[in-house]
Amino acid sequence: MFRNSISHVILVFLIAAGICTDASTQTLYERKNVIIDLGVLDKRPIQLVDPFIDWDSAWTKAQSLLSNLTLEDKVDVVTGIGWAVGPCIGNIKAKPDIGFQGLCLQDSPTGVRFADLVSAFPAAINVGATFDKLLMFRQGLLMGREERGKGVQVTLGPCVNIMRAPEGGRAWEAYGPDPVLASFAAQLTIQGIQSQGVIATVKHFVLNEQEHKRTAQSSQVGQRALYEVYLRPFKASVDAGVGAVMCSYNLVNGTYACENPALYKILKDELGFRGFVMTDWWAAHSGAPTANAGVDMMMPGSATIATTESFWGPNLVSDVKNGAVPETRLDDMVTRILATWIKFSQDDGFPEVNFHSFSPSLGKHVDVQAHHKVYIREVGAASAVLVKNNRTLPLSLSNATYKTIAVIGEDAFGPSNGLNSCADHGCVDGTVAQGWGSGTTYFPYIVAPVDGIKAKADPHNLSVVSTSSASLAPSIATMADIAIVFVFANSGEEYITVDRNDLHLWHDGDALVKSVADVQKTIVVIHSPGPVLVPWIHHPNITAVVFAGMPGQETGNAIADVMFGDVNPSGRLPYTVAASPNDYPAHVERDASEAHYTEGILVDYRWFEARNITPVFPYGHGLSYTTFAYSNLTVKPPSAERKSYRVSVNVTNTGTRAGHEVVQLYLALPMWTCQAEGCAKELRDFNRVHVRPNQTVTVTMHLYKDDLAMWDVGRGRWVVAQGVYEVFVGASSADVRARGKFAL
């Protein structure tokens, strides 16, 4: 996991800065036997996709350019030119004397924001729901192609903030509450993006888990939770070679994240990050303290959206001249930016920007979509999570069981006011295929669910009746043989309407579901940024339920592929669906000046297990149109050739349809490592495999040193505990099919 050593100086620094706050548990592990350096085990390897020059060479070349830059030039390289000044949402001025063309920085994690002729990709929460490592990489690769095609040099994603609070507004932009799923997804997405020569930006560093009071609230977190949960995806991103990191708006243990030197000691010194750190837009609160803390680039340059004045710019020139910021610090800032630009060969024929975020008519209208809609449709279907099915799905096109299908709900239809009618999708107008805010992308088109269903039904002479009206829903339902009700919740970024108020469906969705189910057999499809409450789940007429997330432009085709059996569903919940909001360990702190992470490492399903709370649907749950059996689990110890524990299990398709099974590996550390709040197993790996009927495949996963390690607060370092480790392999966090153990 993280490097196995941290100097005493850094540890003292962290304590002084407020990062180490677990004083009550600092001696817990000192009373137990731990293995500081387990040499027989390797760290989890990463197969880097990196066709470019190495970082050392890029740094050397960047340093050679410094002598050709004046002090004012250097400050230009680290300071954005301002909001709505250039074509991109963030712009760095060119320096022709050194061949530097400047930089275009642009959202979003779903595609190129504010651009025409681009694709609207599935949200990250959907990518996480696939539990498919290849699809994670392909999402990054195809987005990287489109970003490069538009001239974007730095894309502002992926987002890896943890879904600590299920109502979190930007949860849809990330991968859910589990840090291991987020780590795999981030690594693979980053490698896909950067394989195209586009610099990826992992964000928001760190502990930006809600939108309420995001610029004023302090996230108060203990050291073990910080390292094991919230920093873990950032560490994984650094290991994957990410080029940029974005610091967040919030405070961390009392100090703004963008001027918190303890965080950058961790990021740059301990984790070995070689790229540059930028502020989130207007997240800086000072000049010299922000630079001295470790931030390398200020975005968008101006101090606020309402001014052209900057904390840096001419003020940074003065700070360097008067010694408030050492010029060596400025040189490091510039070197990091130029080295990253060089590292990804952007100094050699990178396309010019051909769109304009603020004046679209100035764009050159370059179409970069290619055939990406095929992938978008595939992920939309692969991320659909079938959570309940009483032999209703798949719907048959070849028999007369259902001659007429009712499609009901405003979420089943396309926008009534035209595509992209609301800025950053900050309204509800038709089906929800993205959230809102800076993470959005213009839809080139959108296939509404009702249209996707009709496209399947019409050639087979099946009738589709439909309505978006809740009052007409029961009567329309009675005209059909089965009803499909589309309901939704939505959320997004602070500047629109912050986090979700609660976990209920929007626009009286629960009442709509019940009114239809009272008169007809009903399938429910939910588009949402995260978990919702499902109080109607046991209604006898509700025979199937699908969580569809936010699937992007092909949403209607993707759900129809699953409904009619062209795709056997394999999506898995990347979060827990609870019976009550009170079952979750944390919620959005709406009015407090501090958010206390008192649940520690027990986020989401870990809390449910530790507290013996039964959810409606557990983390990792998802049904298929076939069935799978697990057998012959083996756990083989490390060897001289293979420095990992090898966990293998046989998976047999015992049904009649081919399908994908998502095999999940969880690990429980020795009991004595539990924190006061309780103990739970934790996801460590997963593998999505295709299995034909009656076929048996062997699925092999590995446990490395970083999978066994825990953060020892007393020692201020990663250690491996002595004791018995339990291995759990299954189809969800609660559906364990095989168990094993080993001792250290």
What layout of secondary structure does this protein have?
Elements: H1 8-17, E1 34-35, H2 55-66, H3 71-78, E2 90-92, E3 103-106, H4 124-130, H5 133-150, E4 154-155, H6 179-194, E5 199-205, E6 218-220, H7 223-230, H8 232-239, E7 244-247, E8 251-252, E9 255-256, H9 261-270, E10 276-279, H10 288-293, H11 314-321, H12 327-343, H13 372-382, E11 385-389, E12 404-408, H14 449-457, E13 463-467, H15 473-478, E14 482-488, H16 509-517, E15 522-527, E16 542-547, H17 555-563, E17 594-596, H18 605-610, E18 628-636, E19 645-653, E20 659-668, E21 682-691, E22 696-703, H19 705-708, E23 709-712, E24 717-721, E25 724-730, E26 736-743
Parallel strand pairs: 3-4, 4-5, 5-7, 6-8, 6-17, 7-10, 12-13, 12-14, 14-15, 15-16
Antiparallel strand pairs: 1-24, 2-3, 8-9, 11-16, 18-19, 19-22, 20-21, 20-25, 23-24, 25-26
Family: Belongs to the glycosyl hydrolase 3 family.
Domain Fibronectin type III-like: 661-733
Keywords: Carbohydrate metabolism, Cellulose degradation, Glycosidase, Hydrolase, Polysaccharide degradation, Signal
What does this structure look like?
Belongs to the glycosyl hydrolase 3 family. Its EC number is 3.2.1.21. One of its GO terms (molecular function) is beta-glucosidase activity. It catalyses: Hydrolysis of terminal, non-reducing beta-D-glucosyl residues with release of beta-D-glucose. With 744 residues, this protein is α/β, with parallel strands linked by helices. It folds into three domains: 12-209 and 216-362, Alpha-Beta Barrel (TIM Barrel), CATH 3.20.20.300; 372-575, Rossmann fold, CATH 3.40.50.1700; 626-743, Immunoglobulin-like (Sandwich), CATH 2.60.40. A six-stranded mixed sheet has the order 2-3-4-5-7-10. A six-stranded mixed sheet has the order 11-16-15-14-12-13, sandwiched between helices. A four-stranded mixed sheet has the order 9-8-6-17, with no helix packed on it. The model is unreliable at 1-31 (pLDDT under 50).
